[in-house]
Amino acid sequence: MQKRIYLDNNATTMVDPKVKALMDPYFCEHYGNPNSLHKFGTEVHPPITEAFNKLYEGINARNEDDIIITSCATESNNWVLKGVYFDLIRTGQKDHIITTEVEHPAVGATCRYLESLGVKVTYLPINQNGTISAEQVREAITPSTALVSVMWANNETGLIFPIEEIGAICREKGVLFHTDAVQAIGKVPVDVVRANVDLLSFSAHKFHGPKGIGALYIRSGVPLTPLLHGGEHMRGRRSGTLNVPFIIGMGEAMKIACEYLDYEKEVIARLRNKLEDALLEIKDVFVIGDRSHRVPNTTLISVRGIEGEAMLWDLNRAGIAASTGSACASEDLEANPVMVAIGADKELAHTAIRLSLSRFNTEEEIDYTIEVFKKAIQRLRNISSSYGA
User: Fold this and answer.
1) Contact yes or no for 297/356 (Cβ under 8 A)
2) Is the distance from CB of 199 to CB of 176 less than 8 angstroms?
3) pLDDT digits (tens, 9 = 90+) for 48-101
């Protein structure tokens, strides 16, 4: 039987069996609508409350803050940007948003849409280290800036942005600060209070919860026009019947993810480093970003002379799942935008492969991946018309 090794955990993760087990009774046994007044509805209130407590504890939110359930972080990101547009920009109070050139498409594409409505957007370029500096944000803020939106960790490189420093500047300047923390939760500590975050997005399926559910943290006192109207669910901030089993699953996934932070830092980082070290022994192989500034599970690796899609083909034939970057843009055969942004030459910018681990990966799987990767490099370079020419 062919091996099946999943190293694409920045795209999605398997549901932790413990999470699934906790969710199961809420599909066919305790299936009541929480808004109903009868016992079928009221009996699910305690487990929902417990799940929310886990979410609040996971990001150190305060009781007076809101965590609103959404379908995913894409919805959360859209809600922040479009809500700020309706609250501050369309009303004429502000007209400017600051973000980066390497945000997830859920932020980048929404900003481009808002530009079509007359919003001014500053896209901060990343430096050769693959991130931005807090000072870039300070210099870009103007009296008309309504929002700064900067990801906590990049989905392709795993590089961590200076969120605490940016948050402090935004708070000092009186500008709303949003961060897409999808790639940070479960990998590094996330503390909304310490980071002075006003709004924070996340998705359960990135930390071994179910797909199709996410959340938006909203600091107390921050107004945000709802995207969805039609009921008083979530205190009127997001209409729609609550997805009880998925909320319970997301809460448990958050709890477990936080319990595994030390494991990520020690064990997963060691496996990731072992993989990197073995591949860096090969000539013309490059890893993007300093390990000390990356989440523990991620490596973006480039192999000169080999197209990323060709490498994926060889890995896939061997039963190894990887990607050329963001799964949300995996059908786009353009050069990797992060590679372009850090100044890689045109050829190297097409060679990036992202390998992202999880707590379910084993050392045996990493050893096998190293073996397959080395053989694939040799095979593909032997038939390359450009490498070594």
Assistant:
1) yes
2) yes
3) 999 999 999 999 999 999 999 999 999 999 999 999 999 999 999 999 999 999
Whether residue 314 sits in one domain with residue 206: no
Verify that 26 and 168 share a domain, yes or no.
yes
- Active site members: 328
Q: Within a domain: residue 387?
A: no
- Asked whether the beta carbons of 337 and 104 are under 8 A apart, the reply is no
Separation of alpha carbons 351 and 251, rounded Å: 38
For 251, the token pair is 């809460």
Q: At what angle do helices 73-84 and 105-115 cross, to 10 degrees?
A: 30
310: left (phi over 0), alpha (psi -120 to 50) or beta: alpha
Using CA atoms, how far apart are residues 346 and 335, in angstroms rounded to an integer? Answer: 7
Amino acid sitting at position 343: G
Domain-ending residue, one of 215, 243, 259: 259
Helix (H, G, I), strand (E, B) or coil at 235: helix
CA proximity to 357, closest of 282, 295, 313: 295
Report residue 255 CA to chain centroid gap.
18
C-alpha dist (Å) from residue 334 to 284, 306, 331: 21, 15, 9
Mind giving me the DSSP string for 239-308? -S---HHHHHHHHHHHHHHHHTHHHIIIIIHHHHHHHHHHHHTSTTEEE-S-GGGB-TTEEEEEETTS-H
Instruction: Domain of residue 31: give its range.
Output: 17-259
pTM over 0.90: yes
